[in-house]
Amino acid sequence: MTKYLSTSLTYGCCFGESSEMAEKELQSVGNGQSTMVPSVQSDLGAPSAGIHSLLHDGASFTSLESNGDNVVQPFPRSPKLQRKQGKVARPSQEQLTRRMEELEVERSKTEAHIQSLKKRKADLTKTTEMMKQQVRERFENMRRALKQDEQVVLDSLELDLRQTRGRLDQVLKSWKQHQDQVAKSICSTQRALSTSAEREKDGKGDSGCVSPKKPDASEMEIRLNAERFEKLLKTLSFISKTLKAQLQRKTLLLDSSPIVIDRQTCHNQITVTSEGWGMSFSSSSHSTPEHPLQFDKVCCALGSSPIRAGQSYWEVDVRCCSAWAVGVTYASLDRKGRDKGAKLGRNRNSWCVELQNGNLSAWHNDRHVACHGVGRTSVRKVGVWVNYDKGQLTFYDIDTMVVLQRFSAAVTPVFDRAHHQFTEPLYPAVRFLKPPENQVWPNHLEFCHLNSLRR
Length: 455
Hints:
Largest sheet: 7 strands, antiparallel
Oligomer: single chain
Shape: elongated
Strand order of the largest sheet: 1-2-15-4-9-10-11
Number of strands: 15
Number of helices: 7
Distance between the termini: 118 Å
Strand content: 15-25%
Helix content: 40-55%
């Protein structure tokens, strides 16, 4: 037991001294100094083979020069990693050739695309000039037609003038003849007065007397046809207003798009035509299963195509309906119940104009204002124009192009700040309203098909 402890202490001392020597060598390597490992003292006894190997490996470290300009790599990289880096750093000839071909192809495509863009840019002016020429021709045809019609009207007035003047000339000639006869009678009478003898000798002195001539009643009828002229002016005024309205409408028609009714949203008492443009209200309900998007209490229906950007225009024919509402709404409009959240214009999600009890008004956020500029005749068609990006919504009376109501981001005393911009897609919407007790229920509403008008 004593021998075993002596041997362990001897080995421990040798191992500790050897470790201390290795540590000193590592420190000398870090300081950039070359150091030789001293030989092991024989009086300490022979160390084990493992310790001798460790000391031998430690003595094999070489000195590293510390240089601030170079990065010192204390351990060499693996041969596999060196080969991999060599391949990445130095692509093969085949890879370079393939890459060159790809770049050549990309350069050719880029040059072709640039030439195409330059050609399109050059064609813009030519195309615009052609379009301008076509517009000039269309307006020139309109001006030519107006000029021809103007000339026809002027010729008609000129003909009326000539005919009236001819008739007056005949009457004037008759009165001049009568004037001549009166003048002759006056001369004859004067001579008779101056010479009484001659008057006695001249038995024909009384023959110069002329009977008085009275104006004929037909003479008062000889005048320009003022009544016809007044009718002409009224007709021209109506044509002028209609033409002006149609010229204003033409710009809106450029943004028109067909509206098809979404049958899934229709109340069960609404029947949609086969084309999907018109719908009628009936007192009986359909036996179809209820859809989650369907209005169950409010007689309302939405268009199938949402408006998400840009400008859009459509028209609704309301002639065959005595009480109605036309507008736009978000998809978040309530579909169930009779609360304000499901009625057009009674919430923040919808805007509309409506006719009820003969009064036309505009509604939003449960506030309304009377529509001004509406004549005695009822509105036959309502035009709806949306500029989604600018948050603008305008309702028109199509016959006169009078603005019924304009909604925008401006502050108004009635609607407060109506809205800054649209935050959700908009859907066209219509609603059947209940008429007064002495009237029958409304019958038919229809989205106008405007594609044919643009051709």
